[in-house]
Write a structure and sequence with these properties.
Blueprint: E1 9-14, E2 17-22, H1 23-26, E3 32-37, H2 49-58, E4 65-67, E5 77-79, E6 92-95, E7 101-106, E8 110-116, E9 121-127, H3 129-133, H4 136-148, E10 156-159, E11 169-170, H5 172-182, H6 188-191, E12 192-198, E13 201-206, H7 208-218, E14 226-228, H8 243-246, E15 253-259
Parallel strand pairs: 4-7, 5-6, 10-14
Antiparallel strand pairs: 1-2, 2-3, 3-15, 6-9, 7-15, 8-9, 8-10, 11-13, 12-13
The structure holds zinc ion (ZN).
Length: 260
């Protein structure tokens, strides 16, 4: 299968267990573990067997896995203090507790990995387009600042594979929501690109990566601490699950993060 390694990402193949990792976060591999899984397995639909194999490969404890019961494309972020907690109807989890691992599900939406190496805090965030409009990345960073006294200048943020501007085509209504929410950034010409007219409807392309990067810089993260995967889930549909491509039948890629 196609290898998605690039300057920021390394594509690991451990037998039939496959995942992507950020080179930047691997610099801290003695303190934090993470991955983004591929189409080789859909961990949401198996009975735990493949999940356990993935956890073995990552050398994480499967019994300390915390999932969100239902991700709802919100901007709600929850602080987790124990693996016994069962978060529901939120789209981001943060903790400073070691060994609890977070596992969130994605099919085109943006996974955002946050790591503060000074205060030892992590965040695993599901930023769908609605979550991006709700600025969930900023909500999460603000929560790290309030709960754990994180300094945004210390926080490393990795923006994972998601539907890129090349494929995130929307109608006028969604375009207007982005335009109204982010026009203050003064970069509408880069965030929004006019596409074709299809069946009488003007289409637009939206750059959610750039929006997320900009809102993170706005809240105080350093440019050099924001790393993008530069991988579009639709462009790489043979390797990654994509809702745009597979619709209701789409599987899910899993973004895992844990302090160790
Ligand atoms: Zn694409």
């Amino acid at each position: 299968m196609k290898n998605l390694s690039n300057n920021n990402i390394i594509h690991i193949k451990d037998g039939d267990i496959e995942y992507l990792q950020f080179r930047k976060l691997l610099e801290y591999k003695d303190k934090v573990k993470h991955c983004y899984t591929t189409k080789s397995n859909d961990y949401e639909v198996d009975d735990g067997v493949n999940y356990k194999r993935l956890y073995n490969s990552l050398k994480l404890d499967y019994n300390k896995l915390v999932k969100i019961k239902e991700q709802i494309h919100s901007n709600y972020v929850q602080v987790i203090n124990s693996e016994e907690e069962k978060p529901d109807k939120v789209d981001g989890l943060i903790t400073n507790k070691k060994e609890i691992s977070f596992s969130l599900r994605f099919a085109d939406c943006t996974p955002i990995y946050l790591y503060d190496p000074v205060k030892d805090v992590i965040g695993d965030i599901h930023s769908g387009w609605k979550g991006t409009v709700g600025k969930i990345a900023q909500v999460a960073v603000r929560k790290m600042m309030q709960e754990y006294n994180s300094n945004p200048e210390d926080i490393i943020c990795c923006i994972g594979p998601a539907i890129g501007k090349c494929h995130f085509e929307v109608d006028e209504d969604v375009k207007n929501i982005f335009e109204n929410t982010f026009s203050y950034m003064n970069m509408n010409n880069r965030i929004i690109e006019k596409g074709e007219i299809k069946e009488g409807k003007q289409k637009y392309f939206i750059d959610t990566n750039l929006i997320n990067r900009t809102m993170l810089e706005e809240i105080g993260l350093l440019k050099e601490n924001i790393i993008e995967s530069n991988i579009c889930t639709v462009c790489n549909k043979e390797v990654l699950h994509s809702y745009r491509v597979d619709g209701e039948n789409a599987g899910r890629n899993t973004a895992i993060m844990s302090l160790i």
